[in-house]
Design goal:
By secondary structure, the protein is of the alpha/beta class. It has 7 helices and 7 strands.
Length: 174
């Protein structure tokens, strides 16, 4: 066994990524404070060929040195759009027939391991602020909530880790 060299990984260019078929999924970042988290979400979105990222509220946006540090160029491949208000992004997505899914700990949430999307279902995943989670005024607009099971003393994952867990689950369960 040997580690593959970068040139052996058959990576596509940012232009080819933009033309490639994507997972019918967008990510909505609701008031994310950490620029490193934002960059990591871009990088993970690129890995799973996510359609687009909506950066909402106080969420930082490219170009920014701290986002670039963790995104490693994914801000050039993954489409993104800034919306001042998360609700405006949700209205736009619902009008485009996306099911709006909060990733949050809520009464009535669905355990991630129990969730399987319908074939070709268009999903908009909302990830909330690192401290307060998804804004309360957003909850009334969601279609469902998925919760990542946790078994330790802490009751939250880092936003970038949450995005990776959920995207992997959805990617493998389509």
């Amino acid at each position: 066994m040997r580690k593959l060299k970068n040139e052996e990984l058959n990576r596509i260019s940012a232009d080819d990524y933009k033309k490639a078929e994507k997972m019918p999924l967008v990510i909505v970042l609701d008031n994310i404070r950490s620029l490193n988290n934002i960059g990591s979400v871009f990088r993970t979105a690129d890995a799973f060929r996510v359609e687009k990222i909506y950066l909402c509220g106080i969420t930082g946006k490219p170009p920014h040195r701290e986002i670039h540090k963790t995104a490693l160029g994914a801000t050039e491949s993954v489409g993104w759009e800034y919306q001042e208000k998360t609700n405006e992004a949700i209205v736009k997505l619902k009008n485009s027939k996306y099911k709006v899914v909060a990733i949050e700990q809520m009464e009535g949430s669905i355990n991630l391991s129990d969730y399987k999307p319908e074939p070709n279902e268009k999903l908009a995943l909302i990830f909330g602020n690192e401290i307060s989670g998804i804004s309360e005024d957003i909850i009334k607009d969601i279609d469902l909530c998925i919760e990542i099971p946790q078994f330790g003393t802490k009751h939250s994952f880092n936003i970038a880790v949450s995005a990776g867990i959920v995207l992997w689950h959805l990617f493998t369960n389509r």
